[in-house]
Write a structure and sequence with these properties.
The protein is an alpha+beta fold. The protein is built from five helices and five strands, in the order H-E-E-H-E-H-E-E-H-H. The chain binds tetrahydrodeoxyuridine.
């Protein structure tokens, strides 16, 4: 199984492919499945700004579209001194596939912090809540 340092490295590599003509803010991500598979992604911007896809979601969607749905961790790499934590929509999309996924947030030097998705999105609206309601 890959180490978290290696996952951060893969996210940093993916960051080089970021398509960021509007913000110049590069984000790379690498998501690790429970089976040890890794999918990487970057942010992809658009002239219609709201259509931008974040790096985290690119990596996650690549995995899900290949039939992978169980994840252990996702590493996120940016070129900043401060670590960058995922935006709200990415938190919600990650939560869909597991509140215990570990989010490894790395800065430009590869230093990182780890937080579970559930701690990044307290009082979340989750698939489990929807199911509770359906069964009641
Ligand atoms: N961005 C991400 O890729 N992930 C985040 O969690 C936050 C923001 C991207 C979107 C946009 O391309 C750029 O960073 C600046 O907001």
């Amino acid at each position: 199984m890959v180490s978290y340092e290696e996952l951060v490295q893969i996210a940093a590599e993916a960051k080089k492919k970021a398509y960021v003509p509007y913000s110049q803010f590069r984000v790379g991500a690498a998501i690790l499945s429970e089976d040890g598979l890794i999918f990487s992604g970057c942010n992809i911007e658009n002239a219609s700004y709201g259509l931008t896809n974040c790096g985290e979601r690119t990596a996650l969607f690549k995995a899900v579209s290949e039939g992978v749905r169980k994840f252990k961790a996702i590493a996120i790499s940016t070129d900043t001194e401060e670590i960058t934590s995922p935006c709200g929509p990415c938190r919600q999309v990650l939560l869909e596939f597991g509140e215990d996924i570990e989010v490894i947030m790395a800065n430009v030097h590869g230093d990182y912090k780890i937080c579970k998705v559930k701690d990044l999105l307290p009082l979340a609206f989750s698939p489990a809540k929807l199911e509770e309601e359906r069964l009641s």
